[in-house]
Amino acid sequence: ALQRTPFDSIYAGAKRNMVDVLANDPRAWVHASVQTTLYIMADRILNDFASVDDVFIVLPNIHYFPFDMSKFGLKNLQADAEVYMPLADPSGYITATISRPPKGKL
Fold first, then answer.
1. Range 43-58 average pLDDT
2. Among 14, 43, 84, 104, which one is least packed by beta carbons within 10 Å?
3. Do 96 and 56 form a contact (C-beta atoms < 8 A)?
4. With 70 as the cut, is the pLDDT of residue 91 above it?
5. How many CA within 13 A on the CB side of residue 106?
6. What is the gyration radius of the CA atoms in the chain, in angstroms?
7. The whole model's pTM is what?
């Protein structure tokens, strides 16, 4: 019998996992690495959905630099940095495909 793939529920679950990683997974903040974050997201999707074999993610590579607030009499450079400004355009994209091992191979 032909089994239908529940695309709507997989999409909703994948989206929920991705948002949850950004909002609640300290590994995504502590490492402050886009690569680590997208791996955690993909790993959760593969663990939650047996019918998904590969997860392909594309994220913009946006750099943030401390904003010079010295004209306001405030320190915000080097160790004092708390306010950051993004570059206007992404510096390319970070992509990854995370796949589960072929069946029968680990």
1. 95
2. 104
3. yes
4. yes
5. 0
6. 19
7. 0.72
